Amino acid sequence: MPAVTKEAHKDGDVFVDYEEKVFEDVKAEPGEKALVTFHTVAFEGSIGLVNILNAIRLNRKGYETSILLYGPGVTLGIQRGFPTLGDEAFPGHQNFAVNLKKFMGEGGKVYACRFALQALYGHGEPSLLPGITPIAPQDVLDCILLHKKADAVILDTWTV
């Protein structure tokens, strides 16, 4: 059996060049829009959090950015906590709420499908984080089409 002769990694070590940026830092032109859609279940994978962070970045780059929560995506926008709403039961438990609130606080818009809230997940509009706009199920497609007509950047997120 070969002997391991290298020192163990320690906090502060670097494995990659995290400062080199290959592409130019793109900023939005005045009036440009972006839409990030979510058809994913909260806590089922990282994409929910990753694309909320992408929406925050798009917003900060100057895009008029919206988030669309539909199907299981509405589970990202509901209030949660334990033992009471807002409490963090485990580290990262409130990541969705914290980052959606940050996004809305910086001017982003969040929409949630009423059909998915009630029919699929048994929640009502009072379950949504404050600031999220509930929409009719027919609005889901129109939201996407309006952004498409506006030539918006659209990130579609689906997990199955």
Tell me what portion of residues adopts beta-strand conformation: 15-25%
Our count of helices gives 4
**What would the principal axes of the Cα set say about the shape?**
globular
- The strand order across the widest sheet is 4-3-2-1-5
Query: Order of SSEs, N→C?
Result: EHEHEHEHE
The pLDDT mean sits at: 95
Number of strands: 5
Low-pLDDT parts are: none
Q: What structural class do helix, strand and pairing data support?
A: alpha/beta
InterPro entries: DsrEFH-like, MSMEG0572
Protein name: MSMEG_0572 family nitrogen starvation response protein
Give short descriptive properties of this protein.
single chain; 160 residues; alpha/beta; five-stranded parallel β-sheet; 4 helices; 17% strand; globular
Concise synopsis of the structure shown:
This protein is an alpha/beta fold and 160 residues long. It has 4 helices and 5 strands. The protein has a 5-stranded parallel beta sheet, sandwiched between helices.
